[in-house]
Amino acid sequence: MQHVAKVVEIVGTSEVGIDDAIQGAIARAAKTLDNLQWFEVTEMRGHISDQKIERFQVMLKVGFGLNDD
Known about the structure:
This protein has a single domain, classed as Dodecin subunit-like (2-Layer Sandwich), CATH 3.30.1660.10. The protein is 22% helix and 55% strand. A hairpin with a 2-residue loop joins strand 2 and strand 3 (52-65). A three-stranded antiparallel sheet has the order 1-3-2, with helices on one face. The chain contains one helix and three strands. It is an alpha+beta fold.
């Protein structure tokens, strides 16, 4: 049996933290993508304003299985 997956890149942001940005991105992706199987954080960055962290941002690769038709 063959298994085939597709990989997409998504970006999540949060004012709370990195974990919240990841959780939010996966939750949003799950609304439109079926069979989510794995994720990989490929980039992390943030925005600083007035010497304080204002926002966190993560770029993720997300893998999901393709549906059989």
